[in-house]
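To illustrate the input format used throughout this study, we show a single complete record. The first block contains the structure-token representation of the backbone; no residue identities are included at this stage. The design step must infer an amino acid for every position from geometry alone.
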């Protein structure tokens, strides 16, 4: 087989982890605890499902090709919401609706990079970003983070070369859970602008941020779109993961280039999912605030219950949005520990080796926990099982 760029990257981590379940049984009194994937496990609320059904039954356009850059009403609605959250000026012409946030990232890269270009990515990284950069022929330049899992601006500056086209950040972070402060994001924005590159900011988990108010002030810069490329996901906010509704917010000129990519890959985002996202923005603000409160309760339970694990040498490195990122105390690599947890404890989680370069030893000590899939009692049960693990 002729080597291809697609062959150069790794298998999808979540799918690989699911294969570890083959041949393993989980008794009724000890069911599988699946903290491998950051996705809502419940369907949309009844009102949203009804709105989707109504669109399917009464709107012919719900079954036809729509605009490549998305439904005008949804583009306008997200622009208005973005202004309301962050301040500044955002127009509908700055917004494209995409088939999920991963597609928004891919579309952004298509407008930025040629073969052999570089994008700086903090580690631990979001594996789908790394996979797409591999498949696009773009070099991922790892930016190691410290014990607090926050990237350092000066360290990033030292990595910029003549082939660097962007710095890609995720906040709240996947996989680390770390929330980047407004000051840190501003510093990265200023660095990117000064060096003539883009700042890609993926805020898929924005709606579950622990701080009140705007996460940053970047949209208040009147020329934000010369540097900032913003990504968002309706899927996490409204439990629309199966409908793939994301967004790319940038300059109209860049969207003109992204339209070529989007038209070729999907022609248009799914219409019914777009109707659902629009209905959600119009009707579910109070519900979404309640969802955030529940995620924050689960985050508090992660932090409050960690003491017994800390006594056994575990370290809670990061926590936020859907994720906790932990270091384990064993000599064993997380790559084999994660598989052993399935067999011995009925826990499915992802090893840190899936979020780091192969030559980075940090990943062997780390695990990602998608705790948003557990309620507070479930977190307690999860901790009980982890505490019984031996090296």
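Output of the design step:
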């Amino acid at each position: 087989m002729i080597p291809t760029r697609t062959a150069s990257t790794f298998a999808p981590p979540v799918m690989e982890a699911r294969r570890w379940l083959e041949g393993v049984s989980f008794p009724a009194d000890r069911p599988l605890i699946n903290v491998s994937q950051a996705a809502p496990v419940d369907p949309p609320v009844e009102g949203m499902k009804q709105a989707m059904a109504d669109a399917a039954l009464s709107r012919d356009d719900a079954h036809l090709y729509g605009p490549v850059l998305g439904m005008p009403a949804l583009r306008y609605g997200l622009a208005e919401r973005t202004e309301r959250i962050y301040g500044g000026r955002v127009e509908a012409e700055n917004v494209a609706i995409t088939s999920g946030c991963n597609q928004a990232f891919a579309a952004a890269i298509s407008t930025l990079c040629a073969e052999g270009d570089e994008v700086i990515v903090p580690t631990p990284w979001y594996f789908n970003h790394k996979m797409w950069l591999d498949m696009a022929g773009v070099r991922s330049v790892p930016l190691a983070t410290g014990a607090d899992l926050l990237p350092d601006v000066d360290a990033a500056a030292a990595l910029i070369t003549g082939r660097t086209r962007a710095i890609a950040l995720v906040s709240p972070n996947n996989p680390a859970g770390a929330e980047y402060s407004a000051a840190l994001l501003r510093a990265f924005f200023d660095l990117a602008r000064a060096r003539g590159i883009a700042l890609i900011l993926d805020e898929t988990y924005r709606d579950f941020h622990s701080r009140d108010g705007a996460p940053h002030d970047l949209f208040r810069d009147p020329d934000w779109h010369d540097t900032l490329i913003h990504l968002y996901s309706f899927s996490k906010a409204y439990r629309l993961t199966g409908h793939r509704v994301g967004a790319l917010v940038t300059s109209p000129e860049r969207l003109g280039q992204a339209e070529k990519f989007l038209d070729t890959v999907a022609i248009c985002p799914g219409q019914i999912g777009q109707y659902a996202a629009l209905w959600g923005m119009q009707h579910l603000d109070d519900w979404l605030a309640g969802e955030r409160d529940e995620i924050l309760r689960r985050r508090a339970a992660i932090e409050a219950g960690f003491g017994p694990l800390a006594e056994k040498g575990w370290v809670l490195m990061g926590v936020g949005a859907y994720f906790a990122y932990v270091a384990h105390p064993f000599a064993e690599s997380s790559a084999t520990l994660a598989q052993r947890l399935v067999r011995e404890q009925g826990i499915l989680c992802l090893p840190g080796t899936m979020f780091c370069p192969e030559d980075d030893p940090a990943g062997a000590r780390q695990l990602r926990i998608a705790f948003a899939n557990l309620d507070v009692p479930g977190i307690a049960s999860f901790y009980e099982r982890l505490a019984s693990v031996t090296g």
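Structural context for interpreting the output: The longest helix spans residues 285-304. The chain has a mean pLDDT of 95.
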